[in-house]
Design brief:
Elements: E1 2-11, H1 12-21, H2 25-29, H3 32-35, H4 39-56, E2 67-71, E3 77-81, H5 83-91, E4 96-104, E5 107-115
Antiparallel strand pairs: 1-5, 2-3, 4-5
Amino acid sequence: MIRGIGVDIVDLARFERQVLRTPGLVPRLFTPAERELPLHSLAARFAAKEALIKALGDSAGATWQEMEVVADEHGNPGFRLSGGVAEVLRARKISTVHLTMTHDAGVACAFVVAEGDS
């Protein structure tokens, strides 16, 4: 059963301006492993985290560091969730979170489906 869906899109040029204007933004939004990635990948990960928050319905209990975007052995994106975000998923009976991301033509986009048992 689908418990929530979320989508977010990020303008890459605007994201880059924000990162350059606010140096503390990257450490606040991304885990140490994510920070090593190029800017377009960070923008897609930001979109993924925003899409997850939308799929959950709100950001209560969620912090940026508890939502890490990782790749599986095939390179497919997913989340490593911990802390308050993991608790929110349990409380809302969400057992699986599906993620897809893309970046092209100056934008990054992410789509999330939160799924759980009935």
